[in-house]
Amino acid sequence: MLDATDLTTTEVRTQYVQPLIEIILAKTNLTAATLGIQYSKSSTTAEAAPTSSEKDSDEGVIGTLYQEIALYESDEVHSSTCDNNKSYAEILEEASALSAYLTREEQTLVATVASSALVSFLIPQCDYLNFLHSYFTSTSGTASSETISRNVYTLEERLTNAMIWNQDSASQEGSVFPYSASRMRSSNDDGFTTAYFYRFLDQGLASYLSCGMTFCSNKSVIRKQAFNDIIQLISMAICPVTPQSNVKPKSVAPVKESSLLPFSFQLSHVDRLHLLRVCKELAMTSDATTNNQAALAQLRESLFGFASYVAHSDKEAAAAYEALVNTSLIENDESCIQFEFQRLLQTLVESKSPCIINSTCLCIEEMILKYKGNKNKLHRFALRLLAKKLDAEINSAKDTRNNLSNTSTTDAENVAKRQKRFPDNCKPFRLIAIMKAAGVLFSTGGGLRNASEGDVVFEAEAAIKQMIQNTTILLQCSADDQLDIVQSASECLALVLSNETSYLIEKSNVKHIFTHVRQSLLSSSNDKASSAIIDALKPLIVICSRQSRTCAVSFLSFAIKTYSARERVLWKLATCVSIGNPLAVSTRLSNLGESSSDEDIATCKIRTILSSTCGKAVDASPSDPLQRCLSLTESISDMWVLFKLVRVAFQTSNYSFARAILETRLVRGCSRQQSFMYFNALSTLAHGEEVLAVKGAKGIAESMELLSSCNSLLTSLAALEQNDKFGFQLEFIRLRLDTLNLIAITRSLYAEILMTEGTLSGKNNRTTLFRKNIGKSFGLLVSRLKKMYRLWGLHRCQQTRSTLRTLQAMCQLLSEFTKYGTKEAKNSSTPTSTSAPTQSMNMTLSKLRTDVLEQMPKLKQKDDSVSHASGLLLGLDVILKCPCPFPSGFFLMKPIPRAIVNISADPNILPKTISQNDDHDVTVDAKSGAEVIDAFPGLVTKVILSGVLPEKFIQTADVAFSEIIAWTTLQYEGQLYEEDDAVDSDVGGSNRFTLRDGPDSGETAGTLLPAGKFIMPVTFEPLLQEGYYKVIIELGCRDVRGGEWKVPTSSPLEVIFRVDDEGSI
Fold it and tell me: Which of 333, 465, 440, 326 minimizes the C-alpha distance to 379?
């Protein structure tokens, strides 16, 4: 994409678009008037360009393609005339970068050029200029309009006419096409023509297909025909013989031309592979419509045929499957998606190649994640098929073992010999692939049970139960070469159970899972194998311990009974249980053994003790468990291990332990200035939180002083680094300081109400005013936390997002406490935190809401303000005593990459003739630097957002996303002209007011194109009043679970609309 953040739409079109279109017109012998394109008078377009025969008559050569190739062979000629003689690869690449600034007519011209250039390479004996001109000529021989439906020639007829035209011209001129079909792909070729062909595919055609300009509305007849030609040509070139399949989706139409022309293509296998890779770049923008089902269906069949019959290696087949999924997602038809999903799953099950199994698994996952239709229906369809295939794979293994046990000794030996001769070594890969696909299905959070029909719900529940039971059976595959199966089964079960929270309520289900986990653990005989199995089972153990206390106690009792003599395994298993349910472990710490000098065992013990003490009563003073942890750290010499333990201490609110390690070990051992400042900041932060947890309200002043010192150190570090590495840390500390400051003010205010017994609460004084504003202040903290969550949540882990949601719930609860009894309390909404319910803060907030806030209306006292004040002070003291949940993302010091976004006016509504002296041309506001766009009263206004997301932004996202969102805010800035013939009013005047803002403002969603590119039109409602309007746009994205996140940009996204009745029409 072109980086035009500092250019206006007119400047881009004048400096880039117009010269490019003039070059295309000169190369193709077309005129702007024929296409409906109007520019200012130029020497290039004033007269028709010379025809190919006129240019080549002196040289005796027919066709400009050969001239273009020959031109590139001469570096001297290319260096002197490269600006006026760009190759088609360069033209398509530049047009793709400028796609947001091209009008409909210009996009149509580029589409026909791309189709004709592809024809010239696939069929060199075809006169591609004649083929190009046939798009703009109807059957009667007259010029045709873009928006008029007409009876056009078919692809076969136009190709035939172009080849006949080339033969006639060659016979009249006494020459032949220099690069004939035989020489084009002969073994004696010098390779330049082939290299030029590949450059055209990789640089030109791939860029054009990836920009989303190929798809169009139903009115664009010529562009639709050009796209159909490109897709059909590529389909016939990739796989000339279309395989016949027994089952076809309903939307596939028969293709008449698929078997007539492919044998005219002189292509090698490498040529077809390059064309296949180009198909992976095919994309469609959000405002386009898919009206090319027949061509896309032919392409899908061709890609599947290439993967099944033409591919020479598994990697080539994998590339074909990737392109097949991309094409299916673009078509976005429910029947086609289900058909391709079933076909890919069948390929996965029947394949004997690990590479094909892995690639088809990735394709299935991509189809589940990026499908934009009815996801619930697709998820139920996919779940039913995956459960059935997994059941079939497990039953086949059982049948094999049963047959071996029931046969005689001789027959068993023969079966064993046959299995050695033809072993099925891919069954583990198939099992892992099916479970990974099922895990992705449940990780999206799709409504597998959200259906109106009872039969559908029952069928989904049965499939889920079957999936859980079959996956649980695979936990017994604990051999050294099958640990990958155990790990995949554990991860799959963890994702399923996190979505199906009611499964572990039944004791039979808990017993079923515990039995298979126990059998898997008992299969190992040494500490190394047992540790490997525990690592593989860790996701399942954590989620089961979190959802079922019975499960947690069973795992812990089994560990104490079985591994009492194997201390390393005992503490490793106890650590996993403590992550999910620290309360269960805290009661059994004395049964887990004494101290050990082994570093690994000491690390596991410290992690377990820190996690378990988090679930106890809040007391940050040094206690026996913490003293055990400090004594165990003496056997640990690795500074990185100590820092990881400090992170665990922060996450579990054991600030005294973190402070002790930081001050005694890490600060003294660091050798860099930045490290010294960072560890000191963490130590100060831990000290501040420790003081607050011990002293409660009495320690607010001291805690705020320490947190302010931490903020100063982090600010100095950020200045030394000169980037946004500490953006998250600084915002979190400032929010913490503002929260404590507001809590201190609230306590003093309501303590005054208690002391005066509410005698001043009903009067219009300072106390009453502060009381009204306290609730709004906590509401502002909630909004700041939401902004922080939307900005940083996508690039931080689940624990960080959960912590930020908990802090939002805390501020929201305090806001409701302070608004109790006022008018705002009736309209306030209470968001429920989706964090882990076992966290200390979540349990505290839940008790305060049920035991205090909800009971306050039931209390019948003479003075309600006194009871309200006492209840609020009680809630504040409890919250201050409860350790603040700490996000693990605080220790991740990486900035969020910023997107480059261009805002441009719709080129279709700009003046047809660009004049630099027109007062109503697009200009730039002098103060804000925003582009000023003319808008017509009563008409819809549209701007186009185009840009690219950095590759790091996509790679570092914790949740996959495929949609781009734009939120718009429209503000009225002022009048066009002052009254009494005064000078123009200032755009940034004081008379501004917001017309649309917040969630009710405009929201536009777009599709993320390949390589992070996007083009998204944003439409605004008609503006009736003249004046200046400022538009503020916020860019975001939507993940596969439906969560919405903010995307930071390199520059503010602002534009100004100038609505004027005069001069623009």
Answer: 440
